[in-house]
Amino acid sequence: MIRRIGSLTIKEFLHLLHNWWLPALILVGGALELLLIGWATSRPITNLPLMVLDHDQSGASRALIGSLENMETFVLKGYADRMDAIQETFDRGEITAALVIPPGYGRQVAGLRGDFANPGRTRPTVALWLDGAESMAAKAALRDAESAVQQFGQQLVIHHMGLDEGALNRFEPSLRVWFNEELSEALYTTPAELGLMLEFTVLIFAALAFARERELGTLEQLLVMPFSSLEIIVGKALPAAVVGFADFWLLLAIIHLAFGVPVRGSLPLLFVLALGYVLVELGKGLVISIVSRTQHQAFLLVMMVIMVDFMFTGFAAPVESMPQVLQWVAQLVPAHHWLAILRGLLLKGAGLDVLWPHVVALAALGLVIGSFSLYYVRKALE
User: Fold this and answer.
1) Among 151, 171, 191, where does a domain finish?
2) How many angstroms separate the CA atoms of 187 and 179, rounded?
3) Which of 212, 221, 293, 352 is the residue whose CA sits 20 to 30 A from 321?
4) Measured between alpha carbons, how far is 307 from 196 in angstroms, rounded to an integer?
């Protein structure tokens, strides 16, 4: 039995060597995608084009503009002389934000002296327009603009009250961030991308196993050979598992060395759980393979499964913010539990005492998916 399974496994690896461009494209392409996503998300959003319409032309307005320019988030695109010019620039997508300073802004700032406690006093007001079509850039612009205006307002308060620059420092709260001290976006996105790329790799190689034989017309020849259905399944599954597991370690090395993602948990535990997750996705891939008539159809089915799983992993949107029904559906997606396990081991250094609910859920889903896959594929082959 072992010899027959070994023969089938060698046959599958020979297929991969003959069509070497497919594994090369998936492995190298996945690594490049991970590098690009990590590089893009590890850098703060900067150089957002800003246009200014200054009706006041005072020292106070120039100081406010300067405080925004000092934020690396913005780069001054130019000055407008009317609102229509700003609207036209927004329509062409040339700017992300526009600052409109009304007339009399300088006089309002100057009139603040000794009048901070008067609630009826008209406060200095400026308008900030944002391009909501680019939501991520708009959120970054809003956050940093609010921070710049707040700092500018604090400086005005300190100046008018005759205080020194460090007078307000004693009121700053103590803030501590755990697990991702610098709040690096790459430490969130790269582990999630690793988990999704691992799922895609295992699914695509497993899904092409029987679809390729059927498309080439060799499936019938394989079935009349002295192999049992179980031996055929194991022989087809082993190469996909090996390639997927090798891809996991390649991607893990990339995010650790290139982006500094720590491995704070147990590496042997990560090894075992990654192997279990590969086997779970392997069962799904074999079912896709046996129902597909062509390799193109298998690829499209894999993409459909990946898109559905992506929505319930918590990568695009937190599962906790979804309706309760969708939260229940997310518990049935293996990738959702795998990403929780992966982040827990890499970033938090958690162990089984913390991760056991996700491990148990992943094992239960694996048992159900594996049993169904084995039964369905064997029945189809027989």
Assistant:
1) 171
2) 9
3) 352
4) 10
φ, ψ (nearest 5 deg) of residue 167: -70, -35
Residue 196 pLDDT > 80, yes or no?
yes
- Does residue 346 fall inside a structural domain? yes
The helices-and-strands tally (H runs, E runs) of the chain is: 14, 4
Cα distance between residue 44 and residue 110, in whole Å: 35
100 is a domain residue: yes
Within this chain, do residues 96 and 127 fall inside the same structural domain, yes or no? Answer: yes
If one counts the domains in the chain, the total is 2
Is the same domain home to 237 and 300? yes
Give whole-number Cα distances, 61 to 30, 68, 151, in Å.
Answer: 49, 11, 15
Same domain for 34 and 74? Answer: no
Q: Which residue from 209, 206, 229 is spatially nearest to 218, judged by alpha carbons?
A: 209
* Amino acid 118: pLDDT: 53
Which residue did the predictor score with more confidence, 135 or 250?
250
SS3 145: helix
Residue 109 in tokens: 């700032």
Q: What residues contact 90, with CB distance under 8 A and at least 6 apart?
A: 98, 129, 131
pTM metric for this prediction = 0.76
pLDDT band for 236, please (50, 70, 90 cuts).
confident
The closest alpha carbon to 261, from 156, 143, 366, 343, belongs to 343
Considering the domain architecture, whether residues 250 and 369 belong to the same structural domain is answered as: yes
Same domain, 346 and 260: yes
Range of the domain at 58: 45-171
In sequence order, the 6+-apart residues with CB closer than 8 A to the CB of 355 are: 340, 341, 344, 345
From 171, 192, 222, give the residue that closes a domain.
171
Cα 4 to Cα 223: distance, rounded to the nearest angstrom: 13
Whole-angstrom distance, CA of residue 100 vs CA of residue 135: 20
Residues 25 and 151 both lie in one domain = no
Question: Exposed/middle/buried for 131, CB within 10 Å: 0-12, 13-18, 19+?
Answer: buried
